From TrEMBL, chain A:
Domain ABC transporter span(s) in chain numbering: 32-280
Entries under Pfam families matching the protein: ABC_tran, BCA_ABC_TP_C
Lineage: superkingdom: Bacteria
PANTHER family attached to this UniProt entry: ABC TRANSPORTER ATP-BINDING PROTEIN (PTHR45772:SF1), CONSERVED COMPONENT OF ABC TRANSPORTER FOR NATURAL AMINO ACIDS-RELATED (PTHR45772)
Name this polypeptide is given: Sulfate/thiosulfate import ATP-binding protein CysA
Enzyme class: hydrolase
Molecular functions per Gene Ontology: ATP binding; ATP hydrolysis activity
InterPro entries for the chain: AAA+_ATPase (IPR003593), ABC_AA/LPS_Transport (IPR051120), ABC_transporter-like_ATP-bd (IPR003439), BCA_ABC_TP_C (IPR032823), P-loop_NTPase (IPR027417)
Enzyme Commission number: 3.6.3.25
UniProt organism field: Pseudooceanicola marinus
Encoding gene per record: cysA_2
Gene3D superfamilies for this protein: P-loop containing nucleotide triphosphate hydrolases
Automatic annotation (TrEMBL), chain B:
Gene Ontology MF, one: transmembrane transporter activity
Taxonomic lineage from the root: Bacteria, Pseudomonadati, Pseudomonadota, Alphaproteobacteria, Rhodobacterales
TM spans (from-to): 12-33, 45-64, 84-104, 116-140, 176-196, 217-241, 261-282, 294-314
Protein name: High-affinity branched-chain amino acid transport system permease protein LivH
Organism: Pseudooceanicola marinus
Transmembrane helix listed as a keyword: yes
One of the protein's GO biological processes: amino acid transport
Compartment annotation: Cell membrane
Membrane topology: Multi-pass membrane protein
Length: 283, 328
C-alpha cells in the first residue's frame, strides 16, 4: 500500500497528487498552500505556525471549537488579516501582502459569519456586485451608458440570473435584502460570492444559526456548487456532523494550533481531536 | 385673484429657484457622507474654489501671481488669453478630480477607521486650507463670472402671467437655467448610481465596507470617485452662485445653509437633499414675505436654522433619512 493510500484511504492516480473521490469527482493539484502561518493580535496568538493546503476541486473544511482561530485563518486566506509570519502560496506563486479587494480580484470569493450583505439593495443588485470584477467598461463609458457597457450589463445579468435560479431565490430577486429572513440572507450571500465565478470559495460558518431544514438545504447547495461548477470550497464550521458529510479533507484547529488534518474518518478517530471536542481531564 | 396671493405665488416660485442652489450644495454633502461617513465641511469651500479656478482659467490669470511677483520682483498677472467657457469648465473639472485624489491620498487615507469627529475636524482644516490656497492662487477680490448663461427677467413668463393674472411674475432666466441644470444633474447621478458598474460599487461601499472589499471593490478608488463627483457638483453650484452674485469668499458660507437642508432631508438621502433644499428655499422666502415685515425683516438669516432645530426635536433622522433603531 502506497503512502497516499495509507493517508487518504484511496489511491492517488494523478502526477499532481490528486485523486478521484468515491463519488467520482476529480481532486486536482494544490491550489493554495499556507506555510507556517502565525497571526498575532498584540500579545494574543490567534494562529500558531499552521500549514495546510487546499487542492483544486475539493471541499476543504476547517473545524475547531469556538475561539480556535478558524475565522482568523479564513481572514488570512481572504486578505482581511496579514499574518506576521509564514507565506501564502496561491496557484504556485507566493502571494505578496495584499488588500482584501486585490485577493478578491484574484478569484477568491467569500461569505461572512455574520452576513455582510448590502442591506439597502435588492437581491439582484447584491448578486450583481459579485460580477463587478468581470465588468471592464470605464467610468466614462458607464456614465454615458453606451455600447460596451450595455452589452456587459446584459451578459452579466444573464450569468447572475443563472446563479439565482441555481440557488432557488428567483421569487425574492427584487426584494430588498434587509427584509429577508436569516436563512435566505445566507443564501443570497452565497449567490453573490458565486457570481464572481471564483476559483476558490471561502464560506465562514455557512450553517451557523440555521435550523435543520435550512442546514440540509445549504449542504445540498454547497455540494451542488462544487459538483456543477467545479468550484474549490474551503469552509469553516463548528458543527462536526455537517462537516464530516460534506468535506473531502478536514483541518482541525484548537487554541490557534493545528491538531489534525486528513479525511473525515481519520479526523474522527484522532485522539487530539476527540479530546478537544469532548474535553479531557488534565492531571 | 387678490394681489397678496399673487405676490406670494411669485415669492414661492423664486423660493424654489433659490432652493435649487441650496440643494446642489447639500447634494455634494450627501454623496460624500453616504460613501465614506465623512461629513465634509469643506463642500462649500470646494464650490468657491471651483468657481475661483474657473474664473482664473477663463481669464488666463496666472496662479500664485502675487506670490511669484513678491518673490521674484516680476510683474506677471495674466497669460494673456481668454478661454471659452466650455474649455475652462472641462479644465476646472480636471482640477477638481486632482483635488479629490490629493484629499484622499494625503488626508483621508491616513484617517481610515478614525472617529467621525476626527474626520469632521479634518474637513474643517481642509476648508480653511483650501480657502487660503484659493486666496493665494487667485486673489481675494470679487470676480465676475459669466459662462454665457442668460440672465435677467424671463419676458415670456412675465408676459404670460400678466395676461392670465394681470400681474407679471419676475423670474430670473438664470434661476430657470440653474433649476434645469440641477434637475439634469440629479437625474444623471441617479441613473449612474442605479445602473452602472461604478454606481453599483459606490452604493455597495455606502452600505457595507467589508462586503464591498470581499467582492473586490477598492475603497480608495470609490472614495476618489465620490470626491470627484462631489467636486463636480461643487463646480456646478459654484458656477450658479458665482454667476448670480459674483465669485467672492462669502460663497463658502453657503455651506452653512446646506446644514439645515440636510437636517430636513436627512444626511443619507439624495432626494432628501433636493426636497430639503426646496423647502428651505421656499420656506425662508415665504416667511420673509409674510412675517418679515412684522418683525423688522432679515428673517432669512435665521429661519432655516430654526426650522432645522424643530426637525431635530421632532424628526431627528430628517424627512428621508435612515431611521436609527438601536437593537438591545
Amino acid at each position: 500500500m502506497s503512502l497516499a493510500e495509507q493517508v487518504l484511504g484511496h489511491e492517488r492516480d494523478n502526477e499532481d497528487g490528486g485523486w478521484i473521490t468515491a463519488d467520482g469527482r476529480q481532486i486536482g493539484a494544490v491550489m493554495m498552500e499556507m506555510k507556517n502561518i502565525t497571526l498575532r493580535f498584540g500579545g494574543v496568538v490567534a494562529i500558531k505556525d499552521i500549514s495546510f493546503d487546499i487542492r483544486k476541486g475539493e471541499i476543504r473544511a476547517i473545524i475547531g471549537p469556538n475561539g480556535a482561530g478558524k475565522s482568523s485563518m479564513l481572514n488570512v486566506i481572504s486578505g482581511f488579516y496579514n499574518p506576521q509570519e509564514g507565506d501564502v502560496f496561491y496557484l504556485g506563486e507566493k502571494r505578496p501582502k495584499m488588500r482584501p479587494y486585490e485577493v478578491a480580484r484574484q478569484g477568491i470569493a467569500r461569505t461572512f459569519q455574520n452576513i455582510a450583505l448590502f442591506e439597502g439593495m435588492s437581491v439582484l443588485d447584491n448578486v450583481m456586485t459579485g460580477r463587478l470584477n468581470h465588468m471592464k467598461a470605464g467610468v466614462l463609458a458607464q456614465a454615458l451608458w453606451k455600447g460596451r457597457a450595455e452589452r456587459e450589463e446584459i451578459e452579466n445579468r444573464e450569468k447572475v440570473e443563472k446563479i439565482i435560479d441555481f440557488l432557488e431565490i428567483q421569487n425574492i430577486r427584487k426584494k430588498p435584502v434587509g427584509s429577508l429572513p436569516y436563512g435566505l440572507k445566507k443564501r443570497v450571500e452565497l449567490a453573490r460570492a458565486l457570481a464572481a465565478e471564483p476559483s476558490l470559495l471561502l464560506l465562514d460558518e455557512p450553517m451557523a444559526g440555521m435550523n435543520v431544514e435550512e442546514k440540509e438545504d445549504m449542504s445540498r447547495f454547497i455540494l451542488d456548487v462544487n459538483d456543477e461548477f467545479g468550484t474549490t470550497i474551503a469552509l469553516i464550521e463548528h458543527d462536526m456532523g455537517v462537516v464530516m458529510d460534506l468535506s473531502d479533507r478536514v483541518v482541525v484547529m484548537d487554541y490557534g494550533k493545528k491538531i489534525g488534518d486528513g479525511t473525515p474518518d481519520e479526523v474522527r478517530n484522532n485522539q487530539d481531536v476527540i479530546d478537544a471536542y469532548l474535553g479531557v481531564a488534565h492531571d | 385673484m387678490p394681489d397678496q396671493l399673487l405676490f406670494a405665488m411669485e415669492v414661492f416660485l423664486n423660493g424654489l429657484m433659490a432652493g435649487v442652489l441650496y440643494a446642489l450644495v447639500a447634494l455634494g454633502f450627501v454623496l460624500i457622507y453616504k460613501a465614506s461617513g465623512i461629513f465634509n465641511y469643506a463642500q462649500g469651500v470646494m464650490a468657491l474654489f471651483a468657481a475661483l479656478t474657473l474664473v482664473g482659467i477663463m481669464e488666463g490669470q496666472v496662479p500664485f501671481s502675487h506670490l511669484i511677483n513678491a518673490v521674484f520682483g516680476t510683474e506677471i498677472h495674466h497669460f494673456g488669453w481668454h478661454l471659452p467657457a466650455v474649455v475652462a469648465i472641462v479644465l476646472t473639472g480636471v482640477v477638481m478630480i486632482a483635488l479629490a485624489w490629493a484629499v484622499n491620498r494625503f488626508i483621508f487615507r491616513h484617517l481610515v477607521g478614525q472617529e467621525p469627529i476626527i474626520l469632521f475636524m479634518a474637513t474643517i482644516g481642509l476648508a480653511y486650507f483650501m480657502e487660503g490656497v484659493g486666496d493665494i492662487m487667485w486673489g481675494a477680490d470679487i470676480k465676475k463670472l459669466d459662462v454665457g448663461l442668460p440672465q435677467g427677467i424671463n419676458t415670456w413668463i412675465d408676459e404670460s402671467t400678466y395676461e392670465i393674472f394681470g400681474y407679471g411674475f419676475f423670474i430670473d432666466n438664470l434661476d430657470l437655467w440653474a433649476t434645469g441644470i440641477a434637475a439634469a444633474l440629479v437625474i444623471a447621478l441617479t441613473i449612474f448610481s442605479q445602473y452602472s458598474k461604478q454606481g453599483r460599487a459606490l452604493r455597495a461601499v455606502a452600505d457595507d465596507h467589508q462586503a464591498a472589499l470581499s467582492v473586490g471593490i477598492s475603497l480608495n478608488y470609490i472614495w476618489v470617485l465620490v470626491w470627484s463627483i462631489a467636486g463636480f457638483v461643487a463646480l456646478v453650484a459654484g458656477i450658479m452662485w458665482g454667476t448670480k452674485s459674483g465669485v467672492q469668499f462669502s460663497l463658502s458660507l453657503i455651506a452653512l445653509k446646506a446644514l439645515p437642508v440636510l437636517m430636513l432631508g436627512g444626511f443619507t438621502s439624495i432626494p432628501g437633499a433636493i426636497v430639503g433644499g426646496l423647502i428651505i428655499g421656499v420656506g425662508e422666502k415665504l416667511f420673509e414675505f409674510a412675517i418679515g415685515p412684522l418683525v423688522g425683516g432679515a428673517t432669512e438669516n435665521w429661519f432655516a436654522y430654526v426650522l432645522a432645530l424643530l426637525f431635530l426635536v421632532f424628526r431627528p433622522q430628517g424627512l428621508f433619512g435612515e431611521r436609527i433603531i438601536e437593537r438591545v
